Amino acid sequence: MNDTSAKPVIVISGANSGIGLAMARELLARGHAVLGLVRDAAKAPLEHRHYRQQCVDLSDPEALQARIAELCRCLDVPLRALVNNAGIGRMGYLEQLSVSDLREVMNINFLSHAIVTRAFLPLLKRQRHGDIVFVGSEAALHGSQQGSIYCASKFAIRGFAQALREECGKSNVRVSLINPGAVRTPFFSGLHFEPGEGEGNAIEPEDVAAALVTILEARPGTVFGEINLSPLNRVWRGK
Ligand SMILES: NC(=O)c1ccc[n+]([C@@H]2O[C@H](COP(=O)([O-])OP(=O)(O)OC[C@H]3O[C@@H](n4cnc5c(N)ncnc54)[C@H](OP(=O)(O)O)[C@@H]3O)[C@@H](O)[C@H]2O)c1
Question: Ligand 1 pocket by C-beta < 6 Å: which residues?
């Protein structure tokens, strides 16, 4: 990886859309260097001298393992933080979802983040400094109808993050989880519903980016285990 600045880097998956994009923009504005892990390199909403991206498909666990190992080997700057953000929604009553839907959601929303984290963790532990942040959801806190596999994937991330936090404290590596309710992003473009119009009916992606900044800027001896954010009201509308 050709990073001439040698600034510690913050790795963010899904950095070219929605929450990940807002996080990348906010961190770049604050002087950090960001490495985006993106599915589609052609979709390039960010141009900044401290931003670079690598193409990574999170849906195939076997291919991901090799790809991410290669990325870790080539990382030539310290890793300030890893933000596991990418995710998809497949909503519907369980019998309406195919087995491949179930596999895809678990692979992208959970297993890929476990694989990416496993690959970067030795580096963070060697450095004895750094943050691992997961983007969960309010679906990680309680199940709701038509959300069976999505909730399962987010419950899995929450359990994973809690266990990892216990494992990593002695190495000075902090593990945090952000659980937003409805955020106004392209997440809903393939779904049959979206947050209602009006500023109180959805969180903005920049609000989630602000939660990330709070986590990263906490005194080193303090860890924000979980941050839950909700829109003021829960108003949905069908499409
Ligand atoms: N929006 C909400 O209401 C909400 C609420 C709670 C939690 N979340 C969580 O927030 C996270 C970000 O979602 P968002 O709202 O920002 O939605 P988004 O705008 O759709 O962003 C999702 C990101 O994940 C990436 N991604 C999806 N599949 C991928 C794959 N196979 N390989 C690599 N990258 C992949 C997407 O890449 P492409 O741009 O190439 O598709 C995109 O960058 C997700 O984990 C989601 O579950 C969202």
Answer: 14, 16-20, 39-40, 43, 56-59, 85-88, 108, 135, 137, 180, 182-183, 185-187
Closest protein CA for atom 30 of ligand 1: 58
What single-letter DSSP state applies at residue 196? Answer: P
Q: Please check whether residue 176 is in contact with residue 85, taking contact to mean a CB–CB distance below 8 angstroms.
A: no
Question: 9-238, what's its fold?
Answer: Rossmann fold (3.40.50)
Shortest-distance Cα residue to atom 26 of ligand 1: 86
**205 Cα–ligand 1 center, Å:** 11
Q: Are 179 and 127 in contact (CB under 8 A)?
A: no
**pTM score:** 0.97
H-assigned helices in the chain: 18-29, 61-74, 99-106, 112-127, 148-168, 205-217
Per-block average pLDDT, block size 10, for the chain (239 residues)? 72 98 98 97 92 97 97 95 98 98 98 98 97 98 98 98 98 98 97 96 98 98 98 95
**CA 219 – CA 11 distance, rounded (Å):** 21
Cβ(14)–Cβ(86) below 8 Å: yes
118, 122, 218, 119: which is closest to 176 by C-alpha? Answer: 218
> Rounded CA gap, 127 and 147, in Å?
39
Structure token digits, residue 236: 């949905």
| Ligand 1 centroid from CA 56, angstroms | 13
Distance in angstroms (rounded) separating the CA atoms of residues 147 and 138: 11
